[in-house]
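yo

u said u wanted the structure for the complex thing, so here. seqs first:
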Amino acid sequence: MTAARIEARGWGWRHGGRLAWAVDGLDLVVEPGERVLLLGASGSGKSTLLAALAGVLGDDQGEARGELLIDGRRPAPGRAGFVLQDPESQVILPRVADDVAFGPENLGVPIEEIRRRVPAALAEVGLAVPGDASATALSGGQKQRLALAGVLAMAPGLVLLDEPTANLDPEGVEEVRDAVARGVAASGATLVVVEHRVATWQDAVDRVVVLGREGVLADGPSRAVLAAHGPALAAAGVWVPGLSPVVPVPAAPGEGLIRAEGLVVGRGRPVARIGDLGLDGGRLTAVVGPNGAGKTTLGLTLGGLLPPVSGRVGPTAALAAGLRGEPERWRSRDLLTRIAVVFQSPQHQFLTGTVREELGVGLRALKVPEARRRARVDDLLDRLGLAPLAEANPFTLSGGQQRRLSVGSALAAAPRLVVLDEPTFGQDATTWAALVRLLADVVADGTGVLAVTHDPLLAAAAHRVVPVGRAAEVSA
Amino acid sequence: MTRVAAVNPLTAIGVVLLIDLVLLLSLDAVTATAAVVLVALFAPLARVPLGRLAPRTAAVAVASVLVALTVLLYGRESGTVHLRIGLVAVSDGSIALAIATGLRLLAVALPAVVLLTDLDATRLADALGQRLHLPDRFVLAGLAGVRLFEVLGEDWRTIALARRARGVGDRGRVRRLPGQAFALLVVALRRAVALATAMEARGLGAPGPRTWSRPSRFGRPDLAVLLAGLVVAGGAVAAGLIAGTYRFVLLQ
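structre next:
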């Protein structure tokens, strides 16, 4: 394997059925062995460029112009190693060693060589699990390192990473970043990373390229580019170190909503011991802790969707508003005006074909009259910045828009408590700020907000942080 | 590792098909009984732990009894009638048919319980690609699809909870089903597209022949299972012929 050279000459790509070019007039040379961080606002075509280099943009998916070459040849699948964002969709075979062998097998690498490369690649990414371990059972960070090992085992001259750490907890982010640095240093391959989080990657790369719709906006050593273009990049949504958005969330007066006692949560078997926990209106509470610690399960239990394993979720009279028993026993329709839960993946929750209908689902279930429903939905559309997309299909929105829509549709029925699972997941700096402003508005109305999150910035904005983990203790 | 795990999945499936074909082509209780007894004799050699064998065998046995009961009560009437309540009639004919049907079901299912309990999707894909020379992409996509199925179970539960949170979870299970199934379909399609991209990025479909790093071989365990299968199939038919009860289904 020798490191690959990338050359783009006036390259552009237009997705099938679109009028605008996703990337156009791109002139860029990446020399063999260079490590490049590719930045740009949402929609600047970073992911498109990466997919094209990986050879997975088929001629049937759109139209290219100009030239894009790897070592003087057109990209083809398997020539470059490509790691994508979602750990879940990158595990291909059920066992760890088989999964790593998948790439080299496809490339026709001889058996003896594959048997040598698989353990070597696993060692390079620091994944110390037996070869016949279940790949499905790995954590998110481990899955991403497994995907990286699968790529390194192909001995590519070019490694491409598309937001490889966007879906991970802070420990997972560092694991993966370090594995990339080690693996690429060992093989000397050329590296191109797309990421919003500059702080994580700036020391692992030696060059930063900022992409815009009309080609390269800035290019050079990371510190120089960030010094010269930092504020502009931050305004475009890039997480520039020292220029993170600050959104204050002032506490507001509110009533007590939940008094949980001796709470143990889990799905059938206990996952996390929470103990006593109170939630109040007008406050933002953050639940933090490592992957798999039971944060989501806690959110679903407090949200009235899962029964506690033991202990009780005691709703106060202010929350129950006349209902008896625990929230888990309440009817689905009765939950609407009391507790809303927003899931991690918005797509699991969409029910209708347009943004407008989606916001009206809860109000319709509550049999709110048409005129009042319309007024409420219009107000939400404005506050969410989704008015121009009112008739669009929810599935066609961008990740940030989908997230705002799922939060908005939970707020439509004016619940007293809102539970959100990873609300800021995968957001760029601009959409992050919009989302936290929305939460601040909700808190200001006296509503209680509980956010399950890995995001240190969101946790910092919270009035109270509840750590969930092996030594789960409740801090006040 | 169980001994049966050393058997090539193709052999296991082939032997199960062989025994089942022979049993499906016969209609009598003696042939079926002989097959059940022979499978039970060979089963310990497969060294499948009882803890895994027992629940599946129990499930098959319960199903056999239920089917036999149905035939007993509603089967075609002939000979002396022992009991009649409305449409229900227990006769000599329905008793014989019930026993034969229950035993046949047991005999058809048991070989699969013993030989396919430990069937490994990866080894099956290896065998289909290397031994049957099915197209690589077809085999590997199928294998990846099996893994996707596990994730879909989790998606289904999440979607059900998510719908309750949206206020539309009060309708009955049956009335909720179509909407929930559609939501699952959308999620599944998205997962499938993402998985296809990941597989392509890892060089699936690259020009040139593919290496199979886990050779799929036939060896002594395969010969042993094949011989056992022939003994079961042949012994069952022989028992039926000797007893004079064997009825070949195509000659009915």
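Residues 471-476 of chain A have pLDDT under 50 and may be disordered. The longest helix of chain A spans residues 170-187.
cya
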